[in-house]
Amino acid sequence: MSDEDTGTPEGSGAKRVYSQLLNLQERILTRLNHSREDLKAPTTQHLVRQLKHQTGSPVTEQLGRVTEAVERALRAVQLCQSELERELVDTPETHSVEGISNLPATLSRFLAERSESPGFEYEVLQDPVRGWVIRWKEYTERGTVRGRGQFYERPYAWLDD
Predict the structure, then answer these.
(1) Residue 109: how many CA atoms within 13 Å on its side-chain side?
(2) pLDDT at position 99, please?
(3) Strands of 145-152's sheet, edge to edge?
(4) How high is the mean pLDDT in each 10-residue block of the chain (161 residues)?
(5) What 3 state SS string does 89-125 have?
(6) pLDDT score of 7
(7) Smallest Cα–Cα separation from 150: which of 130, 135, 137?
(8) How many other CB atoms are found less than 10 A from the CB of residue 53?
(9) Residue 14 CB partners (closer than 8 Å, separation 6+)
(10) Global pTM value
């Protein structure tokens, strides 16, 4: 069984899964924040007061419990999100390129995340102004180019001249 299969952070796929979970949690946080804002909105409060006045319904108490539950859910998601971020930071994954000992962490991380993917090819060059340059291409199973691009160590260095 590989590291990716076991779900350990050392697996190259684990980083991608952590990132996907963080994106999912960000969307959940956004929705929960919108729900909390809707529950605390003046129009909602006005409707609740009007309903209680007209029918004597215990909606105010029930809405208070719902608001507390949303607040607890927000805290739980934020806690889980911070734990996932800590896992990502605590288990740095580096990728070494033969002959290059000082590749910056961002470029190294980019290569580490993608170098195990089938069809991913890259070359590392050094530009006198922009520093290390990664030129990459990703091919589909049929051999067509899915994506390509370049990353620079100092992308805006030429502006300083």
Answers:
(1) 10
(2) 65
(3) 120-127, 131-139, 145-152
(4) 42 72 88 91 89 84 89 90 76 60 79 84 87 90 91 75 54
(5) HHCCCCCCECCECCCCHHHHHHHHHHCCCCCEEEEEE
(6) 44
(7) 135
(8) 9
(9) 3, 4, 7, 8
(10) 0.47
